[in-house]
Structures are given as C-alpha cells and as structure tokens.
Design goal:
It is a single chain. It is built from 15 helices and 17 strands. By secondary structure, it is of the alpha+beta class. Among the domains are: 31 residues, no CATH class; 179 residues, v583 domain like (v583 fold), CATH 3.90.1700.10. It has a 4-stranded antiparallel beta sheet. Helix 1 links the parallel strand 1 and strand 2. Helix 4 packs across helix 6. The chain is globular and about 90 Å long. The model has no long low-confidence stretch (mean pLDDT 94).
Length: 465
C-alpha cells in the first residue's frame, strides 16, 4: 500500500496538451517527445531485389561527405549550363525553384520574378506585356534542379544571367547558381521594379566580369573549407551568411584589386559585397548541390537528394527513385515580419535553398548559429533542439561540417525517408518569406517544417522497388 502513498511521477508521451494539464495541477511531469509512425509505415530493410538499404544509405553519406566543392569560374547561363540553350531550340528557357510547375499554378513571387526576368532579357517593356508573354506558351519553364542549378526563393535563372560554376573535385560534378542580389525588393522575392532591373544589369555588366577576372587570378576557391569555417563562426549558411560572406571577401579582395585596374570599380564591388550579408548563400547552395549529386541514383538508397519549394508545392527527390518528384502543398512559414507586413501578406514556403538542409547545414546546423533566432524567431534553445531532432531522421553525421557547441559533432546529414516515416519528424528549415503578390518582395523570415505528404508518397514508391 506504500506505493499509492508516494508522490506521483507521471511521464507524458506525445501530446503536449496532456503535459500542460498535469503541470497545471502542480505536478512535476516528464515530457517525452514521441509521435506514432506516419500512416503507411512498415519496416523496410531490403529492396525486393535484395539490396541492403542501410549499406546503400551509408554509401550515399560517404559520397556526400567526400565531396570537395570548389568555385572554379563564372559564366553566362546560356553559355555554360549544359542543355540550357541547345542549338535550334524554339523557345527560351527560364528555370525556377522547386518541382515542375506551369504558369497557371505559379505563386505570386515566382510570377513576379519571371516578369522581371523577361523585362531584364529585353523581351517585354512592361509587366503586363511580360505576363502576357509568360502565359502565351512561348517560354519554357523548368526546375533549376533539372539543370544541376539552384536558385534561392523564386530561383529564376534566365539566359543572360551570370552564374557561378562550382565543381566537385572528388567526382567532377558541376552545379550552378546566380549571384545574390541581397534582401528586400529583389527579383528572387518576386519584385520587378526599375531599381530591380538596374541592379541586375549592374551585376551583369560590372559585378560579374570583375569577379570572373578575380577568379582567374585567385584560382579555385575551396567552398567546403569556407563553409566549415563559417559554421564555427556562427553561420548556418542558409539564413545567416555573415561569416561566409566575410570569408569570401577576404579570399577574393586581393585578386580583385590585381585583376581590375579601375579602383572605382573595385570599390563598388567590395561595397556591394560588404552590404550584402547573404551573398555567400548563392555559393553555399551550389556547393551543397555539387556534394549531393554523387549520391543520386544509388539502388536501394532511401536518402533524400533534393528538397525544394516553388511556393505552391514542396517537392523531394530520393536517390533510389532518380529524377522522380514527390510533392505536397507548400506550408506557410512561422515568421517574424518586416514593418508593415503580417502573416496575411505571406506566400507559402518557396525556394531551392533547402538544398542546404539536404546537405547537412542550414536549419540542420542551427545549433551552430544561435544568433539566427533573432532573424527567424525562436530562442537559442530552439536552435539546439532543432539540430538534435534532425539527428533522429538522418543516416549519418558530416565529417567536414561540425558544431562547436556539440563538442564538434558532425552536422546531421542524409535525410532517410524511412526514419521520417517511423518517427513522424520532418526536416526543419529556416527561410525567408516573400509577399504573396507579384512585384512586392520580401516581407519576413521564419521557420518551417516539411510537409509529411511528400515523404509518404516517396516511401510508397520505395516499397515497390
């Protein structure tokens, strides 16, 4: 009978409301963060052909961690991205972020960015004319990922835009991304006003040739080393890139001064880089893409090789299923708002920048960047917990990217669809927020979790292999 006279020490599994009810009665309760497996989950260890899935996943993680992404050059999209402008092609190509989508289903920011790109290319003089051209069927739209490219937010790449060329020295794979414009009213957030076009033209005619000339002097820049250093300096290399951008300026400035004879141009380029803390994002993204490409198309591998959002759909691609997309509706971002804006102004989640989390940084490395919570909301404890939770759904820990606050533990890498299904935990991201209407631009930043539906669809396909 003594047992029933002891103080209660309840343990609550799962539902937070149960824990709150017990605590409200003054009882100390131990909360266990648990949820049931997602519907459709079964234990999956081998494919029907007998492939050991754990072994396949370990090989994928090994390939990702072995990647050596270098910034080797720059060029114009139509000239350097394979297949971007093949001879005899009747329609002009514009690539966008996320999985495939038609003009009719595109969200406001993507439409706005395409309108701006058509004006930038000289194919339309007004937003109305650009929108009519985009809807006419004369423009081809495709995901950046179909061309081994990545684009933040709306992700637009049009033929005349300069791009970085990042090569994985380990395997030879190459990835591409445009130069970063900065925050606010910029093309990648769906803005297309005259100031947006002027900035893009300056980036094409001044910034691009200057950086290209500097790279010819400096030689390839080791982006993996730069990302690893930035993580130790408080970046997570998705929404916080202060350290990464600073390291890039440090690497490129001497070569820039040597390669560009006009000191006013050198000063203008350095001022632009210094004023744009997010410039390194468009280097970390293709670096991650180049590191992930070797992990594609491994038989039996359940590791996610692409996560991307177009503002309408959230999509993933999985190693064993190749180029096939699995999609679900893009969720809304829980964010902090710029002055004058509220959640009612926000578009659903958008951008290829989830490639950072796919490769083991970004939101997966939040524990390395507690200062980011001031930009996207939350607390340092939230940042730590976000990273710890991602270990639950990944197949390994990165050997190149480590977190000082976790005793230099490698970042969680290799999202395993099976673990997402078993735990009910989906990837966490931190991201910017675009206005839902075309032409406005950035309205905030915040945190978001991937929808479960795309992982459930991918798991169903993996079960049939």
């Amino acid at each position: 009978m003594d047992l029933f006279r002891q103080p209660l020490k309840p343990i609550n599994l799962g539902l937070e409301s149960f824990r709150e009810s017990i605590a409200a009665q003054g009882v100390e309760v131990v909360a266990v963060d648990w949820r049931p497996p997602l519907e459709g989950y079964v234990e999956l260890t081998h494919t029907r052909a007998g492939v050991d899935i754990d072994a396949a996943n370990a090989e994928a993680v090994r390939r990702i961690c072995a990647g050596q992404p270098l910034l080797v050059d720059m060029g114009i999209a139509r000239e350097v991205i394979p297949g971007f402008a093949p001879a005899g092609k009747a329609r002009m190509l514009i690539t966008h972020s996320g999985p495939p989508i038609t003009w009719e289903r595109m969200c406001g920011p993507t439409r706005g960015a395409i309108i701006g790109a058509l004006i930038y290319e000289g194919l339309a003089e007004t937003p109305e004319a650009a929108a009519a051209l985009a809807a006419s069927g004369e423009i081809e739209f495709a995901p950046c990922h179909h061309y081994n490219a990545v684009g933040p937010m709306a992700g637009i790449i049009s033929p005349s835009m300069p791009v970085f060329i990042v090569r994985n020295e380990t395997t030879g794979h190459q990835a591409y991304a445009t130069q970063n414009e900065g925050l606010g009213r910029v093309l990648r957030y769906g803005a297309y006003g005259p100031e947006v076009i002027r900035r893009l033209k300056w980036m094409e005619t001044v910034l691009y040739p200057s950086l290209k000339a500097a790279l010819a002097v400096s030689g390839p820049i080791d982006l993996r080393s730069m990302i690893a250093q930035a993580l130790h300096m408080g970046d997570e290399c998705h929404n916080r890139n202060k350290a990464g951008t600073s390291l890039f300026i440090r690497a490129i400035a001497p070569a820039l001064a040597e390669a560009v004879r006009d000191p006013t141009v050198v000063a203008a380029v350095l001022r632009f880089l210094d004023s744009n803390d997010h410039f390194f994002l468009n280097l970390s993204m293709p670096a991650m893409k180049a590191m992930l490409l070797p992990a594609e198309n491994i038989p039996g591998c359940t590791i996610v090789t692409t996560m991307a959002r177009n503002g309408t759909d959230w999509g993933i691609r999985v190693s064993a299923t190749g180029d096939r997309w699995f999609t679900a509706p893009a969720p809304m971002v829980q964010g902090l708002w710029l002055p004058g804006y509220t959640a009612a102004d926000a578009n659903p989640d958008i951008g290829d920048s989830a490639i950072t989390e796919t490769g083991g940084i970004g939101g997966f490395a939040l524990a390395a960047a507690p200062a980011i919570v001031k930009f996207v909301g939350g607390t340092p404890a939230d940042a730590l917990n976000a990273t710890l939770e991602m270990y639950e759904i990944t197949a390994g820990e990165h050997t190149a990217f480590t977190i000082p606050g976790l005793n230099f533990r490698g970042t969680p890498v290799g999202v395993d669809v099976r673990k997402v299904m078993r735990t009910g935990i989906t990837p966490r991201l931190n991201t910017g927020i675009a206005h839902r209407e075309p032409g406005v631009g950035m309205v905030g930043a915040g945190l978001v979790q991937a929808p479960q539906g795309c992982f459930a669809a991918a798991f169903a396909a993996l079960r049939s292999l």
